[in-house]
Structure prediction request, 112 residues.
Amino acid sequence: MEYIEWKSFKQHRDSKSDLCPGYILDDQSRFIMEPGFYTQLQTFKSFHPEQFNIVLNAINERVKKNKKVFFTVDVEHPFIELSDYIYLEITDILDPLHIFVEDKSRGSDYGD
Prediction:
C-alpha cells in the first residue's frame, strides 16, 4: 500500500504490517499511518480541499518535531503497538489548526 501524498519519500517497514505503510521524511523523522487514519484524511480532503495542504504540512511538521509518529484512528486501540513511537489521532493534527470537524458517525439516537 502506498499513500500518494508521500510518494516522493522513501518507504520503510517498521510497522510489522504491510497494511500500515511508513515513510521516512529525513534522517531522523519517520511515520507510520493506519489505513483508517488515511481514510479520515481523504474524507477531510473531500469536504475541505482548500485546507488539505495545511493539514499535510502540519502532519509533516509533527513528524519532524517528534521523530517517530504512528497515526492511528484510536490511540486507545492502535492497529499495532510500537514502544518508540508516539501515537496521534486526526484531532491531534486538526485541533491546533483550529479546524474542527464534527464526527457524525455515531450510533442512532432512536431507541426502543
Summary: The chain has three helices and five strands. Strands lie at 10-12, 22-24, 30-33, 68-71, 86-88. The first strand starts at residue 10 and ends at 12.
